[in-house]
Structures are given as structure tokens and as C-alpha cells.
Design a protein that fits this description.
The complex is a heterodimer of chains A (322) and B (273). With 322 residues, chain A is α/β, with parallel strands linked by helices. Helix content of chain A is 36%, strand content 19%. The mean pLDDT of chain A is 96. Classes of the chains: A alpha/beta (322), B alpha/beta (273).
């Protein structure tokens, strides 16, 4: 947890989706053009308070994600700022072409907020786990892709997303993430944040994995490995100059994400390393091009070595050259 | 906009002429069949029914016109050019490199158009969203969406149809270009759509069926009030390739390279009609 002497944020201890549910109400009060859409999952994406407050500014499209995303594009033609909300697996795949062609191609200010990303809906299995979404969204021209670490950062991200003149994908979890930030802060889209300094190894994480990785860094410290932890919530746009100096300060770099190692955060960082000729030992850690099994979240995290111990072990193995 | 029936007839002939001339000059061919179906529909929409202002295309109170069948952009381009959204000369550059006007619609290149389109089964959801937004604000403007019968093969179109009936979007009018063909042949052979009227009625739409080449019938259909807040579906029965005798009513007209001779014949027919 980052040290601070300021007033604790009221979003501390909330999951990313709970924070979203709160902040969208505040933003709705400030801007009457904000509307919320869902596809039969309003409760799951935490829109209940918004619906209570602004019943006429919420639309349930039923179990019809393609129609919801197309209609989100259409709502902008009426001057609205739509928040289109469903699970990450459905927004990225069932409605992929509507997002790409109707929203991104037209450059429309639709805010796509997706919960249940990664393996966070553990027991639901691979049909409901989204481990391709970052890759899909970051392939769309003009799409901003943000994966906040906890409730406090989510509130900041959603506020920033409203002011963004274009489409944005916000990737949230289902579970309550470990707390990374405990005070409100001036969030700027695109800026990576070094949440723990170190010198031996840099661990670059996103979303729910930031908190897990901070705890892994504690375990590593017990073995005298000084691990820095970098929160990269904005996966796109990504500015290499924000990374190059930091990356060269570390001999070893790993990325940690609840996503396929192909096309996610790790790939984005690998592109920076390769294109800037950085001589760094590098590894992408995440889900190794598999379909996941189902089970309670904590057990899945451990099974896929994405819990603190698993991350710790992965780092040690990599440092040992195994 | 008040335009006499006589004037609308002239305009629809000009649109058909533009389609044939532009098609003749496009070396790889054009979506001829499904553009020639739209001449009367576009004339009525842009010169009589829809409230649009070429001088101020982003005018908040404008009616939103969404061409879901984006391959109908020849007819749309002609109608919009003749209505004054951009110079008619732009049609001469149709489908050339980075041109304002192309096979499918690119909003970033085409001034005044509401939305890019081309992939089938998208426009009606966009129209539903615009209509929902209009309803939220109790705005007076309407949404007009032109879809093809081929788009009724797409599940997403039926999601949109289901939702428009449910949400009682009586500010939404859909014009179905019922020309009976997709690329591969007759709709009823490939994936049959009939009985279509029954389907739309069952989905809580107000249904009107007209000859899509009859200007007066089209005007009356647009003017007709819909009961009980229902969205309006105008099934416009059209003839694919209408006005080009060599391909009229044939699937082969879908994407077609017009010979100079065929074009001359069609243009002469238009002049004498």
C-alpha cells in the first residue's frame, strides 16, 4: 500500500466494480448526458445505484450485447455519453465487430466498462473468463485500454474516461482487488506508476494483479530480492519514453497479468523492449495460451501461479535461470 | 421540405442517372443492383420527408438518416450531393484513392453522413440507439434507417428489431429495400425470409408495404401515423437493378461492371421516361 498522509479515499476497500457503481452516480449528477446500458447484467456490473437515481437514463437491452454496442454508438448521435456495461468476455467477443466498426471506426465517445475480467469469475469457467480481451481491444485503432488496479484507481479512471473524446475500454475484475491506493489522486490516462521501488527485478502488473504482485514483492524481499512493482493501468496508448529509462534500471523484468501471455500487457512491454533494443532479461507471466479450468478464484490464482507465492516462485525460477 | 411529386420524379431520375454514370466509370464495377433500388427512396427521404440542413449538418434537431446497407452509398452520395451536402463533382471520384465517396461509407471522409457503414446488420442497432436518445430528451426529430433484405439474415438485425418494438420507438422508421436478392441469389432460396410481414407484426412493429419505386406510395407510407407507439417498418418492394434492362431483377446485378452500351441504353430510357 502506498504511504500517504492525506485523507483516505472513500473508494478504499471497494472492489473496482463497486467503485465504478459509486462514481458513475456522481458523474451522472454532474453530466446529464451520461447514460448507462447493460445487457441483463446491471446488478453484476453494479449499476443499481445509478438506476435508482436515474431510471430514465438506464437501458437494459436484454441478453443482446451486439445490439447494446450498436445502440451505444447510436446514442452518441443524440449527444449522449453511453457507458456500455457487461462482462469482459462478452463485450470483447460477442460484440467485437460492433465495438470495432460502430464505435471505434467512427471514433465515438462510448465508454465500455467490463467486469469479470481475467479469471475473476473463477467457478464459471472458460466461457465466462476473459483472457483475450486486452489483445482484442488494443488491436482496435483509436481505442484506449485501461485496467485499473483497485477501487480508488477505478474511480479516477472512470472520471478521466468521461472527458476522453473517443472510445475507451475499462477492464474491471469481479473480485475485491487488494488495495494498492488509499487516497484519491490526480490520475492521468497513460502514465505508468511505480508503486514499489526496487533494484533487482521489475515486476510490471495490471488490474487485480498489481495487488498480488505487491505482496509477491514482500515475499521476494524476505529472500533479499528487491523487486520494484510498476502498475501499468493504461495498456493503450502506451508511450515507450515513459518506460525506457525505468526498464534500463533493472536487469530483469517480468510482466504479470490475468490474461493470455499472447497479446496482453506482456506483449505491449515486449514491443517496447524490442523496438528500443533494450538488453533486458524478460518474461511474460500470465496464462500460457490455454483455456482455463473452473474453481474458486483463490484456488485458480494459486493454480496458475498468479497469487503472491506463485508470482514469487515464478520470479525466483526465472532469476535462477530455470 | 416541400417538393412536388413532379420534382421528386425528376430528382429520382437524376439519382438513377448518377448511379448509372458513376457505375459506368468505375473500373472494377459497383453495387449496381442494390443502389438502383434506392433512387425513389432517397429522393423522398432527402427532398421531402427528412428534416436535414446541408448548411448545418450537425444541427441538433436534424432527423438522423442511417444507411445500414452501406453498399448503397452510390444512391446516398447522389442524393446528398444533389441536396447540397457536398459538390456533385465528387461522384466523379467515387472509389478512387482516398476519395470522399466510396463503396462503403466512411464518416471521416464523407461530410454530413451520420455513421460509417458497410458490414451488414449494424445500422439498425445504431438507429435504435439514436431513437432511444431522442426519446430520452423528448426531442422532436426522427430516425430513418434503410436496411437490405440480406441484412435480415443477420442475428444482430433481429436483436435490433426485437428491441425497437419493445421500447416503442415510434420515432424510428425503417425502410426495408425488399429486392429479393443477396449476392448469391434469391433470398427465398438461400435463407427464406417470408412471411416477413407477419414477423414484423409479431415483433410489435407497424407495418406498411409499398411499391418502393412509387413515389406517392412512399410519401404516404412516411406520413402514416403509427399506433400504440410502434416503430414503423416500410417494406419497400423494389426491383434489383431497376432501370438497367440487362440486369433488372437478377442476382447478377448485385456487383456489376456496366458496359458503355448498356449504360447508354439505360440513360436513353431514363430520358424518354
Amino acid at each position: 500500500m502506498k504511504e500517504n498522509n492525506q485523507i483516505q479515499s472513500r473508494f478504499v476497500g471497494l472492489s473496482s466494480r463497486e467503485a465504478f457503481g459509486k462514481v458513475i452516480v456522481e458523474l451522472g449528477e454532474q453530466n446529464e448526458n451520461i447514460v448507462a446500458l447493460s445487457a441483463d447484467l446491471a446488478d453484476s456490473v453494479k449499476l443499481n445505484d445509478f438506476i435508482k437515481k436515474f431510471p430514465d437514463r438506464f437501458i437494459n437491452f436484454g441478453v443482446a450485447e451486439q445490439n447494446m454496442m450498436g445502440a451505444a454508438a447510436g446514442l452518441t448521435l443524440a449527444g449522449k455519453i453511453p457507458f456500455a456495461c457487461t462482462y469482459a468476455v462478452f463485450s470483447s467477443m460477442r460484440a467485437c465487430e460492433q465495438v470495432r466498426t460502430d464505435i471505434a471506426y467512427n471514433g465515438l465517445p462510448v465508454k465500455i466498462v467490463s467486469t469479470h475480467s481475467g479469471i475473476s469469475f473463477g467457478v464459471a469457467g472458460a466461457t465466462h473468463q476473459a483472457i483475450e480481451d486486452i489483445g482484442i481491444y488494443r488491436s482496435m485503432a483509436g481505442m484506449t485500454v485501461i485496467s485499473p488496479a483497485d477501487g480508488v484507481e477505478t474511480a479516477a479512471v472512470i472520471r478521466a474516461a468521461v472527458d476522453l473524446d473517443g472510445p475507451v475500454y475499462v477492464r474491471l475484475s469481479r473480485v475485491k482487488e487488494k488495495t494498492v491506493y488509499n487516497q484519491d489522486f490526480d490520475y492521468a490516462i497513460g502514465k505508468p506508476d511505480l508503486v514499489r521501488s526496487g533494484s533487482d527485478v521489475l515486476l510490471i502488473a495490471t488490474g487485480a494483479q498489481v495487488g498480488e504482485t505487491l505482496d509477491a514483492a514482500e515475499l521476494l524481499a524476505e529472500q533479499s530480492v528487491a523487486a520494484g512493482v510498476l502498475n501499468v493501468s493504461t495498456i493503450k496508448p502506451i508511450n515507450p519514453s515513459d518506460f525506457v529509462d525505468l526498464l534500463t534500471d533493472f536487469p530483469v523484468v517480468l510482466t504479470i497479468e490475468q490474461h493470455n501471455v499472447i497479446n496482453g500487457l506482456g506483449s505491449a512491454i515486449a514491443e517496447i523492449i524490442a523496438e528500443n533494443n533494450l538488453n533486458i532479461r524478460f518474461k511474460r507471466h500470465g496464462l500460457y495460451d490455454i483455456f482455463t479450468t473452473s474453481g474458486p478464484y483463490q484456488e485458480l490464482l494459486a493454480y496458475y501461479q498468479l497469487d503472491p507465492k506463485g508470482i514469487h516462485d515464478t520470479v525466483i525460477r526465472f532469476l535462477d535461470g530455470i | 421540405m416541400n417538393t412536388s411529386l413532379e420534382e421528386l420524379k425528376k430528382i429520382s431520375k437524376l439519382i438513377r442517372e448518377d448511379i448509372i454514370v458513376t457505375g459506368r466509370d468505375c473500373e472494377v464495377g459497383v453495387h449496381l443492383g442494390g443502389n438502383l433500388t434506392l433512387a425513389e427512396i432517397m429522393a423522398v427521404l432527402f427532398f421531402s420527408v427528412a428534416n436535414v440542413d446541408p448548411e448545418n449538418p450537425d444541427w441538433e434537431a436534424r432527423d438522423r438518416i442511417i444507411l445500414s446497407k452501406g453498399h448503397g452509398n452510390l444512391a446516398l452520395s447522389s442524393a446528398m450531393a444533389r441536396r447540397g451536402f457536398f459538390p456533385l463533382e465528387e461522384l466523379q471520384h467515387f472509389d478512387t484513392f482516398n476519395s470522399m465517396l466510396s463503396m462503403h461509407i466512411d464518416k471521416h471522409r464523407m461530410p454530413g453522413v451520420e455513421i460509417s457503414s458497410g458490414s451488414l446488420g449494424h445500422g439498425l442497432s445504431i438507429a435504435v440507439g439514436a431513437a432511444l436518445g431522442g426519446k430520452m430528451d423528448a426531442a422532436g426529430w426522427n430516425v430513418y434507417c434503410i436496411i437490405s433484405d440480406g441484412e435480415l439474415n443477420e442475428g444482430s438485425t433481429w436483436e435490433a428489431i426485437l428491441s425497437a418494438g419493445h421500447f416503442k420507438l415510434d420515432n424510428l422508421t425503417v425502410i426495408l429495400d425488399r429486392n429479393m436478392f443477396t449476392i448469391e441469389g434469391a433470398t427465398e432460396d438461400n435463407l427464406s425470409l417470408e412471411p416477413l410481414g407477419d414477423k414484423f407484426r409479431a415483433f410489435k412493429w407497424h407495418l406498411i408495404e409499398v411499391d418502393g419505386h412509387d413515389l406517392e406510395a412512399l410519401l404516404n407510407a412516411f406520413e402514416e401515423n403509427t399506433p400504440d407507439g410502434k416503430p414503423k417498418m416500410i417494406i419497400a418492394n423494389t426491383i434489383k437493378g431497376r432501370g438497367l434492362p440487362s440486369v433488372e431483377g437478377k442476382a447478377s446485378s448485385h456487383f456489376y461492371r456496366i458496359s458503355k452500351e448498356d449504360a447508354e441504353e439505360a440513360l436513353a430510357m431514363l430520358k424518354s421516361s
